[in-house]
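Researcher: Checking consistency across runs. Here is alpha-L-fucosidase again:
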Amino acid sequence: MFSLASLLVLGFVALTNSQYQPTWKSIDSRPLPSWYDDSKVGIFIHWGVFSVPSFGSEWFWEQWQQRKLKPFVDFMDRNYKPNFTYAAFAPSFTCEFYDPEQWADIFNASGARYVVLTSKHHEGYTLWPSKVSWNWNAVDVGPKRDLLGDLANAIRKKTNIRFGVYHSLFEWFHPLYLYDKSNDWKSQLFVKAKTMPELIELVNIYKPEVIWSDGDWEAPDTYWNSRGFLAWLYNKSPVKNTVVVNDRWGSGIACHHGGFFTCQDKYNPGKLQNRKWEDAMTLDKSSWGYRRTANLEDYLSMEELVSTLAETVSCGGNILINVGPTHDGRIIPIFEERLRNLGKWLSVNGEAVYESRPWTYQNDTVTPNIWYTKGGKNAVVPSVYVFVLNWPKNNQLYLGAPVLNSNSKISMLGVKDILDFKKDATGGIMIYFPQLTPDVLPCQWAWVLKMQGVVNYQ
């Protein structure tokens, strides 16, 4: 039997007297809850049965069985008996070292303000005991525990972090989905039996404040009943006032409708956008899931990570930084090291990131590798922040965008002294960096200047 919420989502009950109707015009009119724009930094977690082979990527099953790519076929032929099935990996998804409290500590130390866990990837395996994923979930096979619920509880013990879920609308090999696909989306057996009941379970039981939808691109939003679900989510759900969603709700919908825009993986336009957006990116340059074959050069350096963060927030985006845990539940040391170092950097420079807003300029008009933000709604004194990715030669930095006067002040976050600067005839300014030895540098990667009394602040 479907609950009332299920019937609403499936379009069987009219959404009368509701603020948001199941139309894109109405759904797109909902203001994005302010917590999301203020947060700026999130953590993405790709974890599932694909973490067992941990070869190639989280698309292992599809690349092996559907596309039959040679590296995946050869890997299976070398290491597994004939007729081995993907489902046979599930008992090895043991998670014996999974400690959600430790994960929450790492994410909290990273400075992230929200966490998004893959509740179900395209393989269909759910990390919670879904009633519509019998024997293909983390309680029935594998670790025999509610992985999602345990992490949600651990995250919510932290003061500054919100919990969210990624959910794939489709599944590569589910027979009902394949039937609907062969029927040119004229039937909705999979949506009614699987996709929508799962989403409703997730919302009603775990109350995620982010729903990061994916796996939408093959079918139209009318097949998925996306607008019906979102109207219910915004009007009737237990998270209706705080939840945020992305834009992946059907073919042709991404970058056009929904909540914040993701457009495509690792979306980073490098310029200010008209709509709130997010750069979902990963520390392993080649995979979202854990890979045993990754080499050191496959991981983003701290310089690359901080540079991406500066570029993203300057252009009004959020950054969602992905890690892929192992099959036994560990976040490997290089991921932990990157996240903890990011947290150390944010502990110095966070006021230029959290609650910040794009300034008139995103880049400097003269000097490259410079990004700007300005103070947000709670800023006591209007300030412009300058992200300097490379320490300037001779400790002298020339900027063309800010206009200053004799009452303006420049400081470096983490350094007490006020910096000297000089204007030239063209209106540009030369800033003199402090003479600092390595032991007193406020941070190791990128430095942020704070400018007060900027004439062209607006």
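Researcher: Does this match what you'd expect to see?
Model: One thing to look at in this run: The mean pLDDT is 95.
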